Amino acid sequence: MLYSVYVPFAVTAVLAVFAPRLVRALPPRRAAWALACAALVTAVGWAGALTLLAFTGVAQIPEIAEEGRWSVAVLRAEDPVYLVVAGGSALILAVGVVSLGVAAVNQVRHFVRARRECARLPEATELVVVDDDVPMAFALPGAPGRIVVSRGMLHCLTDREREALLAHERAHLRRRHHLFQSLWRLTAALNPLLRPLVAAGEFVLERWADEEAAEHVGDRAIVAHAVGRAALASAGASRPAALAATGGEVPQRVRALLAPPPARRSLPLAVGGLLLAVCCVSLANAASDSDRMVDSAQCASYAAAAAAGAPPAGDHRYGPDFSCGEHG
Amino acid sequence: MEEPGDEGASGVLGRRARGELESDVLAALWASDGPLTARQVRGALRGDLAYTTVLTILSRLYEKGMLVRHREGRSYAYEPVRDEASHTAQRMRSLLEGGSDRQAVLARFVSELSEQDEHLLHQLLSGSEARVEDDRSGGRA
Fold first, then answer.
1. In whole angstroms, what is the distance from residue A46 CA to residue B138 CA?
2. Which of B66, B105, B115 to mutate to test the interface with A (most CBs of A within 10 A)?
3. Using the beta-carbon criterion (under 8 Å), do A151 and B30 form an inter-chain contact?
């Protein structure tokens, strides 16, 4: 408990720093799954560790100790966590849970809107062409999902590039990339340290769809040109004010497509997996320590009550020995 | 990772593959500056599609009311129906303009470019420009 409860924080921090850089060198499909696992496990580890730390503080509140039938004095003596740390953890956890709730509501709202728009689209086809000169193209998740492309976008691409664009958007829909995005957004809402994973994840999903399109078209350069040409055409149409933050993504995709396909490297995945395993084991270890601590505090409470000649709570028929044996 | 689009070549058309072919045909017609005959549509798509398959898809899209056609010699030339799409365009644009939060569920084909990106992109693309010119002249022929 003394150290193991802090390991999930360390793992989260390490992954938040290194994972976004590492995944860019991996094949995008594996990278997306690796990022999803990392986000999920570290979010659970983060919340679990905060809960354990917060509990050590909360358990020392006399009313709660009475309810749980454990001895505050023993708990305080055994507890390796400062009250300040426990209180801070409780606060961070509370903020995280509230922000997770807000993010979840937002996600659901956006999904509902996307589905409604899907259903409202006039034609019963996979592709919806919008009669608009402004180049735009995106995948609209729904049941079934739609590909929305403007006439302006179709006009600026060649035949093969158009094929690449459709294959790219199809890959987004077929692989349910919006679920990956939601997972990253929600875990980042719970744990702000995971925010870099959102941007890295979005990039990896685009790369995944690019690679599937390249496989479909049979020529990586065609997809590179489709992406590049579409981006240049869109840039000519409108240039939003805040650009620096999102810059660089398209050239990186094009460069990756003009280069040979990324090699299947296992070392980063193995190291990442090991870190996640360490995170899980530490959390389990901290949880069992915490459980043992409470048990001994309960034993002490029973022992004290037995010495005083009365059970601590009304109709508890078993003696302290049995109770301790049961938990130990 | 089997691509269902490939099933078209072997003549076995699943429902999904048929839907994708419809998209391909529709996209080809919208990309063109004028009406296209079935033969021209087939030329704009990947070469392994049967002429009759293209014809079937064109007539299905025509029956759905998404295309108009007129006689051109012995066959028909097809063109996408261009009305009523304007308010859809407005809605779709407002979907995209809702900020990064709303875009969380949308997967855009390309994100915005900074001026630096634009410059870099021109450089990258000009590196293999020759192939694109091949594709362009080959594809439009």
1. 56
2. B105
3. yes
